[in-house]
């Protein structure tokens, strides 16, 4: 599976962005997917995950209620809707595909990674 994230940019605090992750290959719909982020000088951290069907999701406490993960298996695309953005959300955001259908919340649970997309939230 090859992954390409897009949709990042510069936004003011309180604003919204929608990230997309286009996947190639026939197995997208079989895999759980996730979003992670990495700020300068920090480790990559879990943001959100979704199971193969989209019927189960899980979020980091820091984004719960503000971010929504979703997927369109017909389009081989993963999304992350980010609302009420805060300066502390500034990071490079990565999409990833797990080697399983079930949600995973650590980097070790993901076999495939895309290039990141930069999100910058100004105060």
What would you say this structure looks like, in words?
The structure is a single chain. The protein has 123 residues and is an all-beta fold. 0% of the residues lie in helices and 50% in strands. It is built from no helices and eleven strands. Strands 2, 4, 5, 6, 9, 10 and 11 form a seven-stranded mixed β-sheet that branches. Strands 1-3-8-7 form a four-stranded antiparallel β-sheet, with no helix packed on it. The mean pLDDT is 95.
Structural class: mainly beta
How large is the share of residues in beta strands? over 45%
* Count of runs of 4 or more consecutive helical residues: 0
Instruction: Please provide the count of β strands.
Output: 11
Q: Could you outline the blueprint of secondary structure elements for this entry?
A:
Elements: E1 2-6, E2 9-12, E3 17-24, E4 33-38, E5 45-50, E6 57-59, E7 67-72, E8 77-82, E9 91-98, E10 110-113, E11 117-122
Parallel strand pairs: 2-11
Antiparallel strand pairs: 1-3, 3-8, 4-5, 4-9, 5-6, 7-8, 9-10, 9-11
């Amino acid at each position: 599976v090859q992954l390409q994230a897009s949709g990042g940019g510069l936004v003011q605090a309180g604003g919204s962005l929608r990230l997309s992750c286009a996947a190639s290959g026939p197995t997208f719909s079989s895999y759980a997917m996730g979003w992670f982020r990495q700020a300068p000088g920090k480790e990559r951290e879990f943001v959100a995950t979704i199971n193969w069907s989209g019927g189960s999701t899980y979020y980091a406490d820091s984004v719960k209620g503000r971010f929504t993960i979703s997927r369109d298996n017909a389009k081989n695309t993963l999304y992350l809707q980010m609302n009420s953005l805060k300066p502390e959300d500034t990071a490079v955001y990565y999409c990833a595909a797990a080697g399983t259908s079930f949600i995973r919340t650590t980097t070790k649970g993901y076999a495939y990674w895309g290039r990141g997309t930069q999100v910058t939230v100004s105060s």
